[in-house]
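Notes from the 1:1 (GR / supervisor)

We went over the backlog. Supervisor wanted to see one worked example end to end before approving the batch request, so GR pasted a single chain during the call. The sequence is below; no edits were made to it. Supervisor asked that the structure be written out right there so they could see what the output format looks like.
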Amino acid sequence: MPKAKPKGPQHPTSTQPVPIDEPTAAEARIAQRLLDARQERPKPPCLTFTREENALEIGFEGLDARRAMLQMHGVTGLANVDAVNMLIDQLACLNASDFEKHKTSNVNSAIAMMDELKPTDGQEAMLAAQMVAVHVASMQCFSRALLDGQTFAGRELNLKHGAKLSRIYAQQVEALDKHRRKGQQTVVVEHVHVNDGGQAIVGNVSAGRGGIGKK
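Structure output shown during the call:
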């Protein structure tokens, strides 16, 4: 009687080590860029949730609480510890308002996304948190629109809201960029036309009491 073939994936039984391919030049550059980024800005701490009766206690995985909070100050750019705790609570509620449904991975992913924006003060921290929230909401809308069996009306409504949130996100990116430039505006002159008998001015031009002059 033939033996039944085992089900599931078959794993090699050889004890020889699996050869590791050398990274390509492009992969090596990516690895170096990631290493440099982590040296400049360490990875955010991982949060943990402990549920006790009607309370949710937030802790940090493998780190002393004081050290972890220092890292969270670095991630958020906030100076006030109460502001940091408030922001953590708000990010924790992005995927579930009921603490019984909180997922640690979702909260840590939201913090990691915020860290990618590198906020440096309170305004940037709040705007970065809102950008993460808008991104999550828009992706949820697009995901619902693409569900199997979704009605035409449901697909249209979710695509409409997703597109609206995407436009809000673009405005937030512009606002963050403007804040970081401190309102400075740059004017780029692409073409200079000099007519016969005219003279082109090269350098910074300022208008004073005596009219326009060259610095």
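Supervisor's comment: The beta strands are 47-52, 55-60, 205-208, 211-214.
Batch request approved.
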